[in-house]
Structure formats: C-alpha cells, structure tokens
C-alpha cells in the first residue's frame, strides 16, 4: 500500500506518516524547505519512507509535480496536510496575502487532488484526506485569509466527492481545532493558560488525535465520504 503525504515535515504530517508506516504503508512525502527535518524523518522511518521537495506557493512547481504522476505512481492514499497562516486584518491591500495563503492552503492541494483522484478513478479505489480547520467555521478578526482558504478546500472536497464516489474513491476533510503543535504555540504567544480556560474541554488536541482519525478513515472504520469531520476542543459546530 502506498501513501502520498503533502506537507510531511509539519507536526501533524509527521504524526500521520508514523501512523501510516506503523500500518505497513510505504510513504512518499513532500516538504517545502525543511530538508534537515525531512532527512531525519526518512532516516527514522527507514526504507518505507521517501521525501521530495515541493513549494506549494509555486504553481509551476505544483503543476510539474502533478504532471509527472503516472498510473504506476498512483497512491492508495493521498493526504494534504501542508498549510500556512497569515493573520492580518481584512483591510486595505490584502490581495497579495490572500493569493499566497489561498495558493498554499487551497489551490495547490486542489490541483494535486484533481490529478490523484483521476488516477485513483482508473484503479477504482483510493482515499483522499484533506486537513482543514475549524477556522473555516469560526471566523475571528485577522483570520479571513486562512479561514476562507480552508472553507474553499472543504467545499472543493465535497464537490469532488460527487464526481468520484461511484468510482470507489472516498474523501474526507478533517477539521481540527487547536492542536498542540508549533503553529499553536506561535498563535498562543505565551497565552496558553488563558486559551485553555476558554475551551470547554480545557485542553487542546494532540497530533495523535488527528493521525488516529485519518487512519480510522483509511481503514474503513469511518464509513462515510465527502464530509468534513470536526475535531474540536469542545466547541459545538453547527
């Protein structure tokens, strides 16, 4: 079984790769610039794991990456993990920031999804997981670029499902709330206790919570397709 993970050097990406390897998958993952982390991860995971550099902000590079995929490269599982944030008020000249965040979080993952889904359709099997965020459902000041990009990814995934489900290709968006990652630490900026007090569960998710959910879907323990599954810190999602 083969898996392709886009954004493997992120905390969630690494957690998912470890789960895939533990479940006897061979994994190819992409990374943007952290070659040291990619090399360390490959060394730790052994021959079942390989890495390839890919800048999701570079549309030409993404197009070249997808164009090089052939039926022989068809993964059984595609997981789009990579993402960036850019918190800033939605005022003034926001075009460049919106374009950059949407390219990395939506347009490039959607481009990769489209090609891999086509290959999976030919084999009449496959699972596609896109990592979204509850930021798509919970707007807050400064979060327009990231939240709208993740909302677009969720809508794209739902629509793609209508086109490919009959070919036995399943899709899922996983939308975590706060997860204990460097991205959360950057957001919290020392306000962790204050943030925890505002959460109904008084705790943030662990990387393993996201990775376990992904594996449950891949194994077929979660019998669905085309939905967004929210993993929250207790917040109701309507």
From TrEMBL:
Domain of life assignment: Bacteria
Pfam families the UniProt entry points to: adh_short (PF00106)
Record InterPro entries: NAD(P)-bd_dom_sf (IPR036291), SDR (IPR050259), SDR_fam (IPR002347)
Family: Belongs to the short-chain dehydrogenases/reductases (SDR) family.
Name of the molecule in the record: Short-chain dehydrogenase/reductase SDR
């Amino acid at each position: 079984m083969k898996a392709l993970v886009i954004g493997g050097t992120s905390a969630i990406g690494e957690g998912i790769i470890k789960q895939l390897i533990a479940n006897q998958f061979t994994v190819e993952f992409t990374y943007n610039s952290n070659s040291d982390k990619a090399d360390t991860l490959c060394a730790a995971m052994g021959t079942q794991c390989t890495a390839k550099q890919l800048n999701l902000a570079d549309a030409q590079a993404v197009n070249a990456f997808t164009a090089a995929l052939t039926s022989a490269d068809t993964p059984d599982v595609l997981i789009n993990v990579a993402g960036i944030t850019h918190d800033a008020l939605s005022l003034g000249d926001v075009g460049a920031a919106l374009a950059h965040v949407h390219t990395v979080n939506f347009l490039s993952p959607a481009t990769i999804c489209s090609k891999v889904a086509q290959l999976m359709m030919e084999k009449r099997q496959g699972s596609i997981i896109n990592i979204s965020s509850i930021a798509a459902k919970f707007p807050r000041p400064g979060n327009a670029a990231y939240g709208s990009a993740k909302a677009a990814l969720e809508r794209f995934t739902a629509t793609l499902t209508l086109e490919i489900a009959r070919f036995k290709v399943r899709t899922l968006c996983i939308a975590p709330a706060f997860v204990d990652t460097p991205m959360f630490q950057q957001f919290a900026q020392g306000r962790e206790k204050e943030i925890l007090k505002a959460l109904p569960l008084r705790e943030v998710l662990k990387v393993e919570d996201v990775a376990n959910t992904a594996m449950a879907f891949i194994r077929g323990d979660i019998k669905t397709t085309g939905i967004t599954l929210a993993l929250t810190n207790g917040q109701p999602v309507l």
